[in-house]
Amino acid sequence: MYAAERHQLLAQRARRDGRVDVNDVAGELGVAPETIRRDLGVLERQGVVRRVYGGAVAVERLDFEPEVAQRDQTNAAEKDAIARAALDQVPDRGSILLDAGTTTSRLATLLPTDRELTVITNSIPVASILATRPGITLHILGGRVRGTTLAAVEAWTLHALDGLLVDVAFLGANGFSAEHGCTTPDMAESAVKAAVVAAARKRVLLADHSKYGTDQLSRFARLAEIDVLVTDSGLDAGAVAELEEAGPEVVLA
């Protein structure tokens, strides 16, 4: 296959699937991963894709935000593992804040019932999971509910967060990197996440490896503001070292 044909195939794959995985395409085409990386470099210079860890994403999909049901099915096994590992960050007693997200929702289902916890959330799914859970005192933050993420945002949410100081906050993100920190495509949701960071003594980011390097429109925290990053073993040792140098302890689920 000529280079021009590979470029066309990669561009089509990125637009169709939203992401191209270097190793998968290299195996499919029978070429070295370095060849695909060079091809993606050409497409990046043409403005077709943005290179990220392990591959590339279509430029037009960078600010695309899938709805909850679709996101819940993506990297489901990794998210389950991250949620289980995050249980070690839950205090024996006290208060926690659960941000909106499919991984934080998984953590909500696993919260122990043998201790007294005050849980605050701006997530409708998380609130539904915990509303009748023994041992949980639940507070839900008000505000406009975004249909895409089912998260409360804007002035009411921000006002409530301004008066809080929780023991541990568990956050989700659409992208994270050592250079650009923790990001999300929606500015209203980003403002709430930033307020969550400010309202917590300890901040724990839950994000699977596919979000590494997928920087989005709005940053809500630098990595130095995150105490612990719980991710999965899809990140290599070099990426882990880079992230830890930026600030947080990295836990691989």
UniProtKB/TrEMBL annotation:
Molecular-function annotations in GO: DNA-binding transcription factor activity
Residues in HTH deoR-type domain copies: 3-58
InterPro entries: Carb_Metab_HTH_regulators, DeoR-like_C, DeoR_HTH, NagB/RpiA_transferase-like, WH_DNA-bd_sf
SUPFAM superfamilies per UniProt: NagB/RpiA/CoA transferase-like (SSF100950), Winged helix' DNA-binding domain (SSF46785)
The UniProt record lists the keyword Repressor: yes
Keyword Transcription regulation applies: yes
Source organism, top-level taxon: Bacteria
Key words of the record: Repressor, Transcription, Transcription regulation
Record function comment: Repressor of the lactose catabolism operon. Galactose-6-phosphate is the inducer.
Protein name in the entry: Lactose phosphotransferase system repressor
Species annotation: Amycolatopsis pretoriensis
